[in-house]
Amino acid sequence: MTAHGRMTHGKAARTWLATTLAFSVAFSVACGGGAAAGSPTPTGPTPPPGPTPPPADVPTAPFVVGREYTDANGWVQYTAGDAPVVLIAPHGGLLTPASLPDRSCSGCVTANDTNTQALARAIADTFTARTGRRPHLVVNLLHRRKFDANRDLPEASGGNTTQLRATWEWLHAAVDTAKADVVRRAGRGLVLDLHGHAHTIARLELGYLLTATQLRLSDAELAASGAFGATSIARLVGDARGAPGGAELLRGPTSLGGLLQARGVPSVPSPAAPAPLVGEDYFNGGFNTQRHGSRLGGPLDAIQIESHFTGIRDTNESRGRFAARLTDALLELLATRYGWQP
Ligand SMILES: [Zn+2]
User: Fold this and answer.
1) What is the rounded CA–CA span in Å between residue 267 and residue 279?
2) Ligand 1 center to 312 CA (angstroms)
């Protein structure tokens, strides 16, 4: 563990909190959240609630690239970066402090996404070694039975908002801080929310907030439905660099799924698997993808990556190999769609 900056109140952070903590939408279930195959189409975003007061301890600039910052309890960690990528690892925490009761909410998922914290760190380090530029990294260090960092506050905390409100706010403030840094340095960028699934088919499930039912529409039907504007990459779809159109960005050869498929990592959606078939499980994106992508506006897009276990996150070797392939795919995506090169 490198230096831990203790963070105090900051005007900039307060502003970020005031503007961004206001958004809170949730229709997520299970691991990474989002509907399984055949679930109802999500409707528009819930109107934002009133402003939330900032926690006593939030991440505040200036940050040193590569330095780790933690909240007052040591439950959430932010590693500052300088690349236009923000990685979130919400379900790979290992801490189970006795001072924090287990979440007891009805229907809450409490199982971790095994090794996803290590996966996120491998991706950050591999990207940095390759480019000399570091992705921002936000890690929930708490085990999911204590805190779920991909839910709205009531479910994230299991109702224990007294102990966990500041944790939840700190985590999202850290992501907001990272996003602001991306905007400052590069203008545009991408948030990746990293999860692990236990579904039958060994492939990545990339979540853009479209349901499996929506993805089963043809490209033309999907375009006609207006669904691209409600994805977590809505900004990219509307961007000049998104000229190929929403379907290409979502599942064409130059989409993240297409770029990964070309590097030997099967994914849905992608050219080989444009949509989950009827009956196939699929996570389409949860709270973080909604909140931190461009569905509600904002300059950063978001994609939820739900990974299978074997060959991706089971061993150190798997994680390193996948991190290299993902880095390679991301570099092409960032160059072609976001106009960024290291
Ligand atoms: Zn998850």
Assistant:
1) 17
2) 15
